[in-house]
Structure formats: C-alpha cells, structure tokens
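Thread amino acids onto this structure.
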C-alpha cells in the first residue's frame, strides 16, 4: 500500500490530542504527587499557625508587668516555668510572673508579648528585663498565615516542594491528582543490544529506549522500559500483548519506515487501529499513532533514528502525557531568537535543526549536522530551530522560532 500524502505537524498533533483523555483522579501520598497538578482545589481545614506561639527564645510576659522596663530601671520577675516547642505544660501565666519560652512554643494564656533573651539576664529563677516589648511583640498569631476556610491551592496548580510542604503543614497526608501515565517503551530492531553487552560487526547499542524512557519520566510518567524486540512481527505482538495490561501509553521506536523489515508496521497494520503515514517534518517523517488491545491503549510508533525518535517524542508524546496528567500548557512553548549563522532547509517539510540557545543574547546557533543518527550532536544541543515548511534559506541575523528542549514547562519531574 503506498503511503498517503504527508500531513502537517499540527494535523498529527491535533489527531493525537483528540484521542487522548485526562487520566482518572485519585489521592496519592504527597511525595508521589511531586510535579503533578492538583486535580481539585484545596481549602484549608485548619489555620496556620494553629495557635499563638513565640517567634523568639525568651520570656512570655504580661505587658502590664514590664511596660516600665528600661536599662536604667529594669523590671525583675519570678520565672514560673519553661515552655518548650512540643513541651508546653504551663498553659496560664500568673500575673507578676514570666515564663521561659522557646521559638514555636505556645504562648500561655494571659501573656501578651515575648521578651527576647537579648533584653534580659537570661535568669532561671528570676529574670531581669531591660526593655519593654510592645503589645504582641515576637508572638506569631494563630491564623496570620492561613485561615481555616481559605482556598490555598487552585485546581491545576503544579505541586512542587513548596505546595507539598504547605499541604503537609495543613495536615494533609495525601492529595488528589491524576495518576502518572504508565508508559511502556519498546525498541525494535534485530541489530540492537543492551548497553553493557558486546557488539558484533552489524549490531549497535539500544540508545532509544533509554532516550525515550528518560524523556517520559522527566515528563512525569511512570515508565516501564521493556527494551529490545527483534524485527519479527510475532515477537513484537507477543511483547506488546504482555505489556498492555500495565500501559496507559505505549511508545515504540523503529520499524515504521519504508524498509524491508519494518516490523511495527507489519505487525500493527493488519489490526486497522493504528494510522501510519508521513508527517511533513525533518527529522521524524515516518510516524504512527492509534490504539491497541481491548483497552484501546494509545500507541505512538516513533521512527528509529534517535534524533527523529526524540523530536517526535517532544512534539507528539509529551503533549499527550501532559494532557493525561492535567498539566498545561501541553506543548513546550517556543521562543524567538536571532540566527548566528545562515541556514538552508528543504521545501515542503518543517525542519528541526539542533542548536544552542543563548537566552541572554537572544541568539541561536545551529550545532552538528542534520543527520538524524547524530546522537552526539543531539546531546550537545539544548534547542531546535523550527524552520517553516515554505522557507528554504535564512540569513544570519534572521529571527526564527526556537523550541527549547529542557525548559519552559512546569510539572512533570
Ligand atoms: P528503523 O526505523 O527501524 O529502520 O531504524 C532507523 C535507524 O535507527 C537504523 O539505523 C536503526 O539502526 C536505528 N535505530 C533503530 N532503533 C534504535 C535504537 N533503539 N537505538 C539506536 N538506534 C536505533
Ligand atoms: Mg529497525
């Protein structure tokens, strides 16, 4: 069957996103939710601080007893006890007395200020106070930070360290999120060997399953790297079927171009549920997307060349995973920069040129060659220049769209 006419990057992405639904909401332990979006708004059930407490190590006092204190005419008070954080037996301060109090310890009833150690002789039985505090000085008031009933996190807020710390402070042990997409990553190719294994004259190490598994994990997914499947349709289908039970998404690499042994196409085409075709981009022209198995698990069949596989992940898989997790924006935002060198580009295809982006200078420099096998250049790049389909040449100094590869998105990991 001849391949159809190429579709645009946007057409392919739109079809993918139309077929992807946000995953179910469940509550997760706080640390498991790092990088995910709050699926529901969170309202404080308690106030923070929960009780009036001391902001300093010092003495809790009644203002009326110490209001006249100066260094020339200090006030002397008996010390009736010590109140520690988490060790606060003394709950009422009698008139005419002081109590030692530590930072974070509850201020006893009757006391209305804390005199820091620095203004006293630090006495144990009696204390000399050299300076009068003002009303409420060095007391952190209950509810001054968060008041019970406050909306503290809107739905969709990405849960980073500060948000998780707040939830824990409010007493939440779990938080409602969309669970992490479980992504199964499969590499196809009879030439592939696991890293660490010896190579023959015709074999190479499987870089893609690590590249794609790492990209999926960084996007926030729970990843199962299955590794290598040989170029035999039965073996591919068997591996796929075994994995489907634990997959929200399957990502494969290789076996989708025009070769004689294109295993993924050969295995999946007969199912009729996976679209294969060219997308008008370079690298990354041969793409496939559809559903497999009784659970209609979305499958991305990415091309085998490593640069193609990685940029296909960026353009199509990453937005799908983010939609599943309820993270926005779905796609990494592009920026503009000035080209440091002139470039050329083939007509009719969107070209993605590996590059270095200098944000401070507002410039972008192409790095390495255009070959989609060049993993050294890929690791060296931190962005790609996006050259539109109808542009065939750009001069140095031209303003271009740039897709950063590591920045611009909240959430995930
Ligand atoms: P294919 O699309 O299967 O024909 O693969 C295209 C090119 O990518 C071939 O040179 C493959 O050897 C190479 N390739 C495919 N899969 C991988 C992989 N997992 N790691 C590194 N290179 C790969
Ligand atoms: Mg192959």
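Threaded sequence (413 positions):
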């Amino acid at each position: 069957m001849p391949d159809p006419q190429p579709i645009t990057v946007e057409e392919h992405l739109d079809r993918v996103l139309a077929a992807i639904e946000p995953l179910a909401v469940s509550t997760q332990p706080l640390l498991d939710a790092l990088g995910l979006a709050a699926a529901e708004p969170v309202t404080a059930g308690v106030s923070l601080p929960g009780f009036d407490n001391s902001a300093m190590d010092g003495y809790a006092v009644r203002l009326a007893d110490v209001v006249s204190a100066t260094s020339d005419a200090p006030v002397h008070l008996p010390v009736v006890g010590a109140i520690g954080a988490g060790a606060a037996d003394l709950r009422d301060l009698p008139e005419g007395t002081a109590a030692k109090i530590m930072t974070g310890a509850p201020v006893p009833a009757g006391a209305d200020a804390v005199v820091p150690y620095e203004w006293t002789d630090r006495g144990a039985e009696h204390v000399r106070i050299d300076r009068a505090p003002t009303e409420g000085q060095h007391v952190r008031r209950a509810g001054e930070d968060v008041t019970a009933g406050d909306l503290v996190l809107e739905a969709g807020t990405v849960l980073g360290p500060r948000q998780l710390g707040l939830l824990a402070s409010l007493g939440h042990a779990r938080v409602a999120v969309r669970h992490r997409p479980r992504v199964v990553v499969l590499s196809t190719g009879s030439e592939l060997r696991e890293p660490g294994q010896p190579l023959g004259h015709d074999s190479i190490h499987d870089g893609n399953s690590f590249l794609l598994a790492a990209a999926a994990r960084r996007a926030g997914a729970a990843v199962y790297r299955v590794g290598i499947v040989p170029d035999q349709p039965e073996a591919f289908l068997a591996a796929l079927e075994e994995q489907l039970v634990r997959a929200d998404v399957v990502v494969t690499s290789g076996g989708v171009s025009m070769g004689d042994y294109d295993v993924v196409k050969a295995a999946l085409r007969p199912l009729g549920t996976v679209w294969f075709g060219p997308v008008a981009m370079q690298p990354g022209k041969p793409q496939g997307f559809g559903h497999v198995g009784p659970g209609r698990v979305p499958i991305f069949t990415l091309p085998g060349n490593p640069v193609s596989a990685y940029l296909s992940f960026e353009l199509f898989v990453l937005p799908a995973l983010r939609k599943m997790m309820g993270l926005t924006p779905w796609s990494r935002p592009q920026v503009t920069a000035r080209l440091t060198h002139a470039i050329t580009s083939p007509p009719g295809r969107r070209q993605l040129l590996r590059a270095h982006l200098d944000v401070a200078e507002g410039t972008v420099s192409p790095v390495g060659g255009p070959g989609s096998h060049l993993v050294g250049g890929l690791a060296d790049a931190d962005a790609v220049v996006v050259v539109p389909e109808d542009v065939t040449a750009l001069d140095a100094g031209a303003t271009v769209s740039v897709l950063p590869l590591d920045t611009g998105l909240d959430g995930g990991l």
